[in-house]
TrEMBL record, chain A:
It holds the Pfam family Redoxin. It comes from Natrinema hispanicum. Keywords: Cytochrome c-type biogenesis, Isomerase. CDD domains: TlpA_like_family. It comes from the Archaea. Residues 24-52 are annotated as: Disordered. PANTHER family: THIOL:DISULFIDE INTERCHANGE PROTEIN DSBE, THIOREDOXIN-LIKE PROTEIN HI_1115. Residues 31-52 have a biased composition (Polar residues). One of its GO terms (molecular function) is isomerase activity. It is found in: Cell envelope. GO terms for biological process: cytochrome complex assembly. This is Thiol-disulfide isomerase or thioredoxin. Residues 34-188 form the Thioredoxin domain.
Automatic annotation (TrEMBL), chain B:
Disulfide bonds join C98-C103. This is Protein SCO1/2. Residues 58-236 form the Thioredoxin domain. Coiled coil: none annotated. Cu cation binds at C98, C103, H199. GO terms for molecular function: metal ion binding. It comes from the Archaea. Pfam families: SCO1-SenC. Keywords: Copper, Disulfide bond, Metal-binding. InterPro entries: SCO1/SenC, Thioredoxin-like_sf, Thioredoxin_domain. Residues 29-65 are annotated as: Disordered.
Amino acid sequence: MRRRDVLAGLGSVGVVAGAGVMAVRGPPSLDGNTGTGESQPGDSNETDSTNTEPLTIETIDAPGSEADAFRVPAADRATFLDFFGTWCPPCVEQMPALAEANERIGDEVLFMSVTSESIPNEELADWWEKHDGSWLLGLDPTAELTARYLAGGYPSAVAIDASGTVQWSDSGIKTADELVAGIEQALAAGGQ
Amino acid sequence: MDRRTYLGTVGIAGLTSVAGCLDGTIGGGETGNGSSDSGAPNTILEPPEMDLSESSHPSYGDELPSLSLPDPLIDETISTDQFEGERAVLMTFVYTNCPDGMCPALTLRLRRTQEVAAENGFSDDVALLEMTFDPERDTESKLRTFADEQGVDAEADNWHFLRPETYDRAKTIMTEDIGLPFKKTDAPEYDHLEYMFPHYNLILLANKRGIVERAYPNGASIDPSKVIDDVETVVTE
């Protein structure tokens, strides 16, 4: 029953893709809704994103941010991460909602945007200022943090509770309400 | 995550992902690269949990399609065959105008493999091949920019962008060699795009014998560490 719903959804995709009617076989795996990937069908031997070693993420000098280093996820509070790229038009569109979410709830968590691109810090800071960033701006030069938490495409957001467990994640452009609701899930989970 | 919730949203995700990149398992029946049903003596990994042998794209135990394509960054022709006996191949298919971030997500899996390979000393045992199927827009300079944006070390010996000479050639490769549906479509919802390519997010891993060890049809969402672990197993065992 549920499986049929799933297959019907994929069929639509196939038609839109211009491939005509094609057989769909096996459990589908679609992007953008699996968070840490825990629920991907057919994918055993998952590496759960809880209980993984925290990483040290360097932040840069930019509006709302300064050159520093942070343990991510934080040990003493919840963490909110936005994964973006300066090359990514939807990431620009995401900025106002991030700014609003940061104003509403940013004080209660470690609130950080992270990019894994190769770009000089000054260019990155210029982009940040141009798009009214006003919170921590972190670098992930090896993409290890990104690989751990990216929930599909860019932009992507994740809210992690104080124990390091992912409580919410989503990719694509989110509203401020959605971001705040995700962060509230991590806060409600506690984990300290 | 609650499984019911997950399944309930799959349909929606399927529709929205049409924006740029499709994901999932598709079957092709007769036209596919058939593989033997019983085991694959030339493989190192155990058969995958999900049997993809009936899918239209290459899967476990199949030969990696033989492709010779220009790498515009070094102005050389790179052939998938040239790595036999030398390197495992991790390969995916993208276009840099991909509007919803799925191609960067695919690239992230290759890029992380490159990073871990360097850390763990198997850089020379793997070739990371990223083919654009949009050669009209993905010029050499565009690919270089994309590499920087994605943090890829495109100068490394193990990284090659592959760029078919023409759109028609790209289409032939995607549909006939790789076995995936392929079509240029309008992109009315994206102001900055004249056209886009709904496509499947496939990553292929072949061993040093040129035999496919894994096809990841959910290549943009699969845990990157799973892919990296598979590559490392294939090159070290």
